[in-house]
Amino acid sequence: MMQAPRPRRDSRAITQLGRTRHDDFAWMKDENWQQVLRDPGILRADIAAHLREENAYAEAVLTDIEPLRAALVKEMIGRIPPAEESVPVPDGAWEYYARYADGAQHPLHARRPRGGGEETVLLDVDALAKQHPYYALGGAAHSDDHALYVYAEDVQGSEVYRIQVKNLASGALCAPPVESTTGAFAISPDSQWLFWTYRDDNGRPSRIYRRPIRSGEDVLVFDEPDAGFFLQIGVSASRKWVVIERGDHDTNETLLIPAADITAPPVTAAPLVRGERYSLTHWNDRFIILTNTQGAVDFQLMWTPDNATDRAHWRSFVPHEAGRYLVGVSACENYLAWAERRDGNVTIQIVPRGVQGNVREQATTIAVDEPAFDLTMLGALEYGGDVLRYIYESPTTPAHWYDYDMATHQRALRKVREVPSGHDASQYVVQRLFAVAADGAAVPITALMRRDTPLDGSAPMLLYGYGSYGIAMDAGFSTTAFSLVDRGWVYAIAHVRGGSEKGWNWFLEGRGRHKPNTFTDFIACAKHLIAAGYGQSGRIVAHGGSAGGLLMGAVANLAPELFAGIAAQVPFVDMLNTMSDVTLPLTPPEWPEWGNPLEDEEAYDLIEGYSPYDNIGAKDYPPILAMGGLSDPRVTYWEPAKWIAKLRTVASGGPFLCRINMEAGHGGSSGRFKRLEEVALVQAFAIWAVARVNGG
Which of 500, 546, 611, 670 is catalytic? Predict the structure, then answer.
């Protein structure tokens, strides 16, 4: 067996707030990391050599699972239609859609005359992708006059996008490219101007520029002064306003530019109040405001005239109700719809224009009678129409696209996600369980299995978790999960605190000083599943990515005995160092989530107490697979590399494996089939880890 890499140890003392820590592997961070994101080929030679050695070792250890991984990839591809088309979105005389040619990795963007007719290809993404080792499309949109197509492309995986403008009549690019962008942009309703978002060297969307859409003469529209704030840009569905949002995880502020005076400077709708969030949806002569003001933890809807947007004019529309977390709003001329989450599931509420009195009592509800499901509100298709589109799915039910006529209350099924290799929902069962956390909180769990899977503890299990930023892990349909489930596995999701499955408080109780709840919730879920017969210690593989990788690192330190293996993709494990380095991507904007260890002693001590890299113990750990991307600007490549190196130095057990994708970033490989290679690697590792622990 090939020996595990033993990188050099070069201890560096780091002192802050009167505390000193030592880092043996800080040298793995290239001093020119910002340039490496744009050109991975300039990575320092000794670091590149070490990463290649890690990749070779991981490949050698897992060489016996390659046939299994190949089989898993083949199965997963078999569940994806070779050729597929999205449900068209109507706009004026056209309907726009995307489709995959037979076997293509990337889609074609196209349109045809409304109601049918000859197709016009707007963008052949697959052809563009073949020119680069990595290719990802960001935003893509047509101008309101249907003459131009604007798209953003990333060719390194570093999330540094280039925006291109294409003339649909000639098929040629018709403007200089926009460089150093986040990929976010907006086209003015008069089709004459392009608003775009500048990405600074720390990965922050920090400025909004405007240029004539067919030329490169940029004018600064807004420069964000707060290093912790991000910017977003968009246009209201009514096409009356260009909307800029600035803010962080706790606070935001909206600025407005009237479409009728598109070169006017942006004006603040309502000045920011620290700790309060609001977003505006324009509805005829007013704005509907989704906000947590006045202590509305799970948010409420308010309204204000569109010519009087200050807080003094806000009036209640849908009052706050604890446990009903409002998550999104969509408007057309005659109807308003919003989505709300309760006990982990989503419903859609609809009211007509002119509604009076108790709005919630008069709302039409779209819901599903299942223990665990997901509804995704795509929104009103046209501002002047009455049709709302949404997607329904559950762990056993493939996605169904519905168009709902809000005037007649009739719905039309537009598409069902095809599973070419076959899918019989009756062969599977999904259950919603609740684990009791250490402080008594009821933590939801979604479990998917075959109907004939025994609940005597003999089934192996993959337990997935995330739990950060208020992002909910919805109970959706995953074609890849069935490769494990059909092998007798239980596939479970732990809806731990830090997400928003049970409302915004569920998020607040898993962030900042409450962050350890995320980790102990996951452990409580594992133990509850064991007690209920869904699995047993040594037959569970834990899986998470990004901030979910932080979760993986933390539970590896806290309860390694529970797991046969741990798979951590782009894992945020070097918490204390990252949150103490203001030169790194996204660090100041992350302080509201984790705390600022540069200025706050309590935050320092808290993060030091759970940071996976800083809490590795001299004890047995299960096999761990850490996966990263060289061009990742969010969780930099050295985090998994340092973590694995230190595990080998301090801990026993393992093996500890690090696999760095040298041609991708945070999202892994691009392409609908190619990305499955990494999904299959995680599953093959899980099967291998369980067999290894149990002597198989």
Answer: 546
